[in-house]
């Protein structure tokens, strides 16, 4: 059966490259230029760090856990997903620590982002000076900026802004249609007194350069009546059309017009009326609006030019600061823009030419050539269309421009899912990443080698696999089944083995209340108790046995007692036979692809790991051998990965800790598996911890809430846990005898009960007249004789 996996192809914020997960931080919306204003960008960062990232990471983690449950141990796909789960855990830990108010990360995420923006990169900030400013506008290390403050009298301190306010009100904007642009360009390129052939050649070239049009000015088709014939075009034909001659020759402009009218009549259909945004400003609008529009557009073009020069290494200076420092330089530039607009010239080219002429002022390392000017103009047009196409920037205050052509280590920012992003590994606080510094270093190294293109989908993610229904029922919990398509859910629940497998999985996972509720609803309760099936516990052990056999093997006393309450005599007898067989030959199971057989779960590995830590701790501390301490603690974590659910639940119960050592004789066992992660400040589930046994272990000691994830425990805490686990092993082993007594036939239980009652009465009356009576049945002690109770009682 084809089953869809839950790991998403296009998760928010998450990019996978060659198995390494990158968490992308959205610095600002947009691609080539920011489309968010300052407030919106701050909100996006707040959403990311104050919950959005953690929500996505935890959802991704849940999806991985589901997928891993479907796959066999050792399966290459499972190994990949387990690796990603470990990485996701590292991100969850670090992202939690970087939230506001976290004691683990003194540097807030705002400070981290600002510090990163201040570094050289391929993202450039610009800040303009509009008439009405956004008071919340904040720019870090601007590539271009104007002085936004005023003096004591309210006069702006920006020389460039003042020059634009003085000159632009009287500027006349010429109507610049494509034909006028072409004619002007041809006239400017012609030599003095040009001949007809020269005019025709330059006109052909400019049509190609300006409009990418290939026009044949040597002939055209002339219609006479209902017929058309090819007319050759030369000076005589043009003179005939213009009625000119040697005594009254046509001017170059008249020749250009005649050639266009004869050979390029349809050229203007596909060419827009205006070729520059500067000419999109109507000349007949109110003066203050025209002035502000020209001011912002001029600043915006200068900012794009400035960013281009910085990105290409042509200049390192802030052109806005340079212009503000010189009233004369600012006036000369603005007057040039005004004059060019009045004559219908190319404003963008005029500004670039001005910068070349004033190269010493702008510290240009070389002159801007035609390719540079074209690139700047195209970038200006694209970015202007982007920022004016949204209502996000009504003030036109500040923007971020991404240089998409930069390569190598300077590429610190990329576009991902519609936003300009930084890599989380680059901005993570070292304190927040203290648990996994090597991992984040590896992420940074991998990111430095990328080509600048971040795909929206993670192609390495496998979306579906073939799984048999029996495998689904064996490996997935009831809640996990709900993530399957409805048709698959229905087929699973209709399968004959569904009740047994579901019931057995809940028993193996320590879900006592759920298992008992299932028994209460079951019509075939005894069949359910007696039927073996294949199931897997949290530690990856796969059994083929009954629920009671597993509880007996795991030494889960509380689960045993619950199951016993639901058994009839026939079921008890069968379970007694089965546990006798376990004691004699052991119970077989598979784990990590290997066969195992034992009569009971062995607490030995966990006790030995705890004891080894206690034995070596003082010597390692004296020798400053932190590696040995860490390795010993990780060994404890590995043993903790292998414990049955009920042992983990003893760690996690909220009503008492491990110090002082509990009696473990409580009437019931709360079946929680919640642990507290000190590194993230969050709660999690014991068996969902990808780093347990590889990066950390769990300590209970005297903590009053639950088990705690710690990386560097104290010897005293581990001693307390060792004493508690040793006591738990002793108590649960002794209670196995009670299980055998509870499964004996009813008649035997009644006889034992009466004998036990008799001796209690004798002891109460202190009648010791016949002391030999006490020695005739030495095996009948409080430890192995149980009073008679009804099936609903708690003593069975």
Automatic annotation (TrEMBL):
Protein name: SidC homolog
Domain of life: Bacteria
Pfam families: SidC_N
SidC N-terminal domain residues: 3-428
């Amino acid at each position: 059966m084809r089953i869809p996996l839950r790991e998403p192809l296009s998760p928010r914020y998450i990019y996978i490259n060659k198995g390494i997960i990158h968490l992308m931080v959205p610095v600002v919306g947009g691609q080539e230029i920011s489309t968010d204003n300052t407030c919106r960008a701050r909100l996006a960062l707040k959403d990311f760090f104050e919950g959005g990232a953690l929500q996505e990471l935890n959802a991704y983690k849940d999806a991985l856990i589901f997928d891993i449950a479907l796959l066999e141990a050792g399966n290459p796909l499972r190994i990949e997903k387990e690796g990603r789960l470990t990485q996701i855990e590292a991100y969850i830990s670090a992202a939690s620590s970087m939230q506001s108010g976290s004691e683990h990360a003194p540097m807030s995420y705002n400070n981290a982002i600002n510090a990163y923006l201040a570094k050289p990169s391929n993202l450039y900030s610009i800040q303009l000076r509009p008439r009405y400013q956004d008071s919340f506008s904040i720019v870090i290390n601007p590539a271009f900026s104007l002085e936004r403050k005023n003096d004591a009298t309210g006069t702006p301190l920006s020389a460039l802004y003042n020059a634009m306010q003085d000159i632009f009100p009287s500027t006349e904007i010429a109507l610049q249609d494509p034909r006028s642009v072409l004619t002007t360009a041809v006239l400017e390129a012609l030599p003095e007194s040009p001949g007809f052939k020269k005019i025709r050649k330059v006109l052909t070239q400019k049509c190609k350069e300006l409009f990418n049009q290939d026009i044949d000015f040597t002939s055209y088709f002339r219609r006479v009546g209902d017929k058309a014939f090819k007319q050759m075009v030369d000076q005589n034909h043009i003179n005939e059309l213009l009625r000119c001659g040697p005594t009254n020759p046509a001017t170059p402009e008249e020749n250009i017009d005649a050639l266009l009218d004869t050979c390029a009549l349809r050229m203007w259909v596909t060419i827009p009326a205006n070729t520059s945004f500067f000419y999109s400003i109507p000349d007949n609008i109110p003066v203050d609006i025209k002035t502000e529009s020209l001011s912002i557009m001029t600043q915006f073009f200068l900012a794009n030019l400035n960013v281009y020069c910085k990105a290409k290494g042509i200049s390192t200076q802030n052109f806005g600061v340079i212009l503000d420092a010189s009233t004369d330089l600012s006036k000369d530039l603005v007057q040039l823009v005004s004059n060019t607009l009045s004559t219908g010239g190319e404003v963008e080219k005029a500004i670039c030419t001005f910068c070349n002429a004033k190269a010493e002022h702008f510290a240009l390392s070389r002159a801007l050539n035609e390719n540079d000017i074209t690139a700047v103009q195209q970038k200006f047009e694209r970015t202007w269309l982007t920022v004016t196409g949204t209502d996000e920037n009504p003030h036109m205050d500040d923007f971020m421009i991404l240089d998409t052509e930069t390569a190598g280590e300077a590429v610190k920012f990329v576009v991902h899912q519609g936003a300009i992003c930084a890599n989380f590994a680059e901005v993570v606080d070292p304190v927040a990443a203290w648990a996994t510094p090597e991992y984040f270093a590896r992420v940074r190294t991998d990111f430095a080698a990328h080509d600048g293109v971040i795909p929206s989908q993670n192609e390495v993610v496998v979306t579906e696999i073939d799984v048999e229904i029996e495998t689904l029922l064996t490996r997935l919990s009831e809640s996990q089944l709900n993530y399957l398509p409805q048709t698959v859910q229905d087929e699973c629940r209709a399968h004959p083995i569904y009740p047994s497998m579901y019931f057995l999985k809940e028993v193996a996972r320590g879900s006592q209340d759920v298992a008992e509720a299932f028994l209460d609803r079951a019509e075939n309760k005894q069949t359910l108790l007696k039927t073996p099936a294949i199931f897997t516990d949290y530690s990856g052990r796969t059994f083929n046995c009954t629920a009671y056999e597993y509880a007996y093997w795991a030494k889960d006393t509380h689960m045993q007692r619950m199951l016993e309450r639901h058994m009839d005599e026939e079921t008890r007898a069968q379970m007694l036979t089965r546990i006798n067989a376990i004691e004699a030959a052991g119970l077989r199971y598979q784990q990590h692809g290997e066969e195992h057989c034992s009569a009971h779960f062995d607490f030995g590995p966990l006790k030995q790991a705890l004891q080894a830590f206690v034995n070596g701790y003082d010597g390692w501390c004296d020798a400053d051998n932190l590696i040995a301490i860490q390795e010993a603690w990780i060994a404890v974590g590995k043993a903790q990965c292998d414990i049955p659910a009920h042992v983990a639940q003893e760690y996690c119960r909220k009503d008492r800790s491990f110090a002082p050592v509990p009696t473990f004789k409580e009437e019931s066992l709360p079946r929680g598996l919640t642990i507290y992660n000190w590194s993230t400040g969050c709660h999690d589930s014991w068996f969902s911890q990808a780093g347990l046994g590889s990066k950390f272990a769990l300590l209970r000691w005297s903590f009053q809430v639950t088990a705690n994830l710690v990386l560097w425990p104290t010897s005293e805490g581990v001693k307390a846990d060792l004493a508690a686990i040793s006591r738990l092993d002793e108590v649960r082993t002794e209670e196995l005898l009670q299980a055998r007594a509870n499964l004996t036939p009813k008649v035997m239980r009644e006889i034992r009960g009466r004998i036990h009652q008799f001796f209690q009465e004798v002891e109460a009356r202190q009648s010791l007249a016949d002391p030999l009576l006490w020695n005739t049945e030495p095996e009948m002690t409080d430890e192995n004789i149980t009073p008679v109770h009804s099936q609903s009682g708690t003593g069975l």
